[in-house]
Amino acid sequence: MWSGMRGIATVPTYVVMQPTTLCNLDCSYCYLPLRRVDQKMPVAVAEAVAASVDSWSRTARFSVVWHGGEPLAAGRDHFAALLEPFAAGVEHHVQTNATLIDDAWCEFFTERQIRVSVSIDGPEPRNADRVTRGDKPAYGRIMRGIEALRRHNIPFSALCVVGQPAPGLATDLYEFFLSLGCDVLGINVEELEGVNTRTNSHPAGQVRAFWAELLTAWRRNPSIHLREVEWFLRYAAAVLDGTADEVLPRRLDPIPTIAHDGSVVLLSPELAGFSDPRYGDFSSGNVLTTPLATILAEATATPWIQEFLTGVEACRTQCPYFGFCGGAHAANRYFEHGRFDVTTTDHCRNSKIRLLEGVLDHARDHQPTAV
Ligand code: SF4
Fold it and tell me: Which of 54, 237, 239, 257 could form a disulfide with 87 if both were Cys (CB 3.0 to 4.6 A apart)?
């Protein structure tokens, strides 16, 4: 078991940038408070971030993840202007609802080598939460965008939200994503966070069975990189090698999220745009007045971050799943418990504990028979 209190790294491996707060959809589980408002990121914010990122990208692979709102709702010309300040070696990713993707966007992605991840929750009936502002299903528009990516031979990842993880669902989901042609798939069990207050408490046995079934489906045709399985395999390999201590980085990746106005929220993008009488607006500074590198160097001066590190330390000393999980996300603690120095959340039960248990259930059910 890994030992020693974790701090926060001063150099991240990626930053999340919010080119606009606006989203053209209105999904029922969305956590974003400002998705109806079009507040675009000024180019000066991108220039300020690029000044720190460019030095980091000279020594290691570095990514900028453009996440909104709906990042494509910023418009191509504005998006191009925001990309301009970054050095050629920086990798750009976009997390999109796919509804605005057309041939022109595909050419834009290809020319700039932007990696694309689309949000889609499986076959049509499973996308009932993904709707337009007029409460119409978005599925047809999502699929048109994905068809454009395929026409242009652009590889893509998929992110799928599961509201009710239960047996009988995972096989259909996995078959759908195989037919969709994505390279990478991440499954997010719906989270209670931000403006989404729907419960995420589910019976343990159902969630375990969901993950076990997903693993069975993946093993039949493992041609998609399934994010959750890869987490598990990395952890299991390290345990077997006796290097489990090295799976978790000694310092937490700060994951700076740069909001449209340049304010920086660390560790959990979902906290951006919220405030609390105890914690203020959760931000650790603004890149328009302070270099991002300086904000990161002083991260622990942000009061809620100290409280979160106390919670992570409590996880390390109390939770048998810590070596796999690492303490999960700050936003889930805050939105479920109203504070950061707590440990278990329904999010970590669904997405860490039951995942690990479900994979082990699968392994027990598929042990070779003794001869
Ligand atoms: S599974 Fe939950 S309680 Fe355990 S380390 Fe992760 S966040 Fe903490």
Answer: 54
Q: Give the angle subtended at the CA of 104 by the CAs of 99 and 107, to the nearest 5°.
A: 110
Alpha-carbon span 43 to 179, nearest angstrom = 39
Q: What is the pTM (predicted TM-score) of this model?
A: 0.91
**Atom number of ligand 1 nearest to Cα 353:** 1
pLDDT value of residue 290:
97
Say yes or no to pLDDT of 370 above 70. Answer: no
80-139 pLDDT per residue, tens: 999 999 999 999 999 999 999 999 999 999 999 999 999 999 999 999 889 888 889 999
Ligand 1 mutation pick, 231, 313, 319, 341, max ligand atoms within 8 A of CB: 319
Nearest-5° Cα angle at 197, 194 to 200: 105
Report how far residue 86's alpha carbon sits from residue 122's, in angstroms, rounded to the nearest whole number.
34
In degrees to the nearest 10, what's the CA dihedral of 288, 293, 294, 295?
70
d(CA 140, ligand 1 centre) in Å? 38
| Burial grade of 111 (CB within 10 A; 0-12, 13-18, 19 or more) | exposed
